[in-house]
Request: fold
Amino acid sequence: MTGVSLAPYRQVLALRGVRALLLVGILARVPATAIGMTLTLYVVNGMGLSWAQAGLVTAAYTVGAAVGQPLTGRLIDRRGMRTTMAVTAVVEGIAWAFAPHVSYAELLLVSVVGGLFALPVFSAVRLGLAAMVPAESRRPAFALDSMIVEVSFMIGPAVAVLLAMNLPAGTGLYAVAAGVVASGAGMCWLNPPTQPEGVGVPATAPARRTWLRPRLVALLIVAFGATFVLGASEITIVATLKESGSQQWTSAAYVLWCAYSLVGGLIFGAARWRVSSVALVGALAVLTIPVGLAGGWPWVVLALLPSGLLCAPSMTATNDNLTAVVPPAARGEANGVLSSAFTIGVAAGAPFAGIVIDHASPAWAFAAAGTVGAVAVLAAAPLFRRAPAAVAEDEPRVPEPVGAV
Reply:
């Protein structure tokens, strides 16, 4: 990686509180990334029901999360990180601990509640970074966060599978409940700031019309498009390898796909290129379209390289762009809305790919998902090019390295 300096990452990690936030963030995200797989395997293996019924349970959780994330984000803005983490950790933890003792119909309701009160760790870490890191260093900070998310997604579902296959039914749900409570306790203890140093919480929340402007709407559309493509690709990789008789290489393909994203995030975070999330997600979508032309697992893995390198950079740029168009006092709610857009994209992409695979082929699923992502970007581009609404700037402050008195 000649020409890529790691100095921006060293500067970010030298800031007080950043290393602790990222460390707690990677551990706190593992339960969140395990929930989908845990619910699916519990319904199928523990309750002996169909995959379709398992899909309805995860969909119920997704709906709850999509509704709840902006609400918990607004709670962070108004009541602070510690109060929000305590409330959501207790309610969500109780929901998953209670889940193994209910009927299927009741499990649907419990899943909605679990989603509504889902621990907002993803948006909380991003919010903390935006508050602790000066604007000129946020790209490498968000790149580190995106890479950490990739690692969490490698760990969480794998742990869920191990628990489901080797321990009694319901153990995974108990583990998720314990993990959520522990994660909430860790975030309460850390209590990262929600506002830049020297910026107080205003007596009244900024009116949404002052920050929910065209450019933010464009970011939400782009966020949906990015995760739509990624959610569809995740399912389609499995179908492609199965169709070619290479299903045994699925895990290797996923690991390499995540590795591409990590490398892309590392390069993008250290670089000084000015590239918008619209351009990155557009490239991600277009480069996904031809992936299905590859046959056999080595060629599929190779075909995933160009789009895979853009996964983490797309998420990084979207998060970075958001901090430029939303005032600090509203970033909790705005991050929650962004998280909802990410969630809805994944939730829509996976079943969309399944329908295309069933009625056409995996190759067409890649092409169709990439096309939907590209259309989303084309719809967002005119809004993004408009002059952004003026927002309250972060108070200038000198970054304080670790060890400063």
